Amino acid sequence: MLFSDEENTIQIAPDAYLLKGFLLRHSNTLLPALAEVIKASPLRHMATPNGYQMSVAMTNSGEWGWVTDQQGYRYSKRDPVTNLLWPAMPSIFRQLAVSAAKTAGFEDFEPDACLINRYAVGSKLSLHQDKDEADFSHPIVSFSLGLPAIFDFGGNTREAPKIAISLEHGDVIVWGGRSRLNFHGIRTIKAGQHPLLGPYRFNLTFRRSQA
Ligand code: MD3
Ligand code: FE
User: Model pTM greater than 0.90?
Assistant: First the structure.
């Protein structure tokens, strides 16, 4: 069978899988749902605990949303900009994230948070670990849309060697188990125009934030 999900699943590290082009058939349903979320809870540049403004603009959908400000990093039920609950996770988001997790061998992933990152040309995300979730046994599923990016995937320490992975529109990565706490980052986005998303890259990360 041409382009089956299994054939396009590439193991990139222990318990980490790249699902090349997994979302390509779904832009027509994903992008309107993304636009609805952003209308309800607008993208914003949050402040880090050290007082810097992030170059990546963010919002969330789902029961919990990741936020950062002078108080630190955490998950919150409310959007601090609107003071409302975050918009519900669109069912097309949830279905595709759960299906991607299953394809990578994670059978019972139930995300309660979807962080939306928007990278303009020149934005980057410095090397970090994702440690704000209650239980690291749950995987993280990430969707890449729009402009391409180079993803740096490191090890268990900041100094460990890194591999560079190209992420393009439609790609999904599922990270779990032995790769769940690895350092990672996104290099500065290069100038370009995506036919559907213009001069932007969007990344959606699906997580289980609460145990
Ligand atoms: C590897 N986002 O939101 S997604 C983030 O493309 C984040 O916007 C990047 O890192 C982005 O925290 C990368 C891929 C990703 C997400 C979580 C991981 C890779 C990961 C957790 C552990 C190891
Ligand atoms: Fe991360």
Answer: yes
